[in-house]
Amino acid sequence: PLPPPPPLPNPSLAPCPDPPPSPQPLHPHPNPHPRQVHGLELFVADAENHRIVVFGLDGTFRRAFGGEGTAPGQFGWLSGVAVGRCGRLFVAEHTRLQVLTLEGLPLQVLHLPGAVELAQIRLTERHAFVVDETTHHVHVLTLDGGAYQQFNVVG
Q1: More reliable by pLDDT, 4 or 94
Q2: Which end of the chain has fewer CB within 10 Å, C or N?
Q3: Distance of CA 16 to the CA centre of its chain
């Protein structure tokens, strides 16, 4: 397999032309199964099998996508999941953040500068906050494709 590309100096999310739905934050839950409810579906990060599994709210299996690897749409170790504007699915894993459609088609792969072990994701109408458990950094991306910043949460 090819090595991953070098980190981008200033990652930015592609702009979303549609108006945002009301954000639903990811509720904290210990690994290995971070999850997110969106509409009538539950998105579960199945870390052991390197995939996202989607269930109906009644528990019925709907679909699964992903697989082990480093290509777009494949996952190393899933650690966070959230659904944001335009129905985009945000998935955190080790050092990168992937943005996919709700059907699992890859839209973007962002390598966050200095990231070691990305974990939880929180979304607001305008921002994605991604926490790095090892470096204690919070990576902040604007959802309109604008600025990127990071800050340390340990004094």
Answers
A1: 94
A2: C
A3: 16
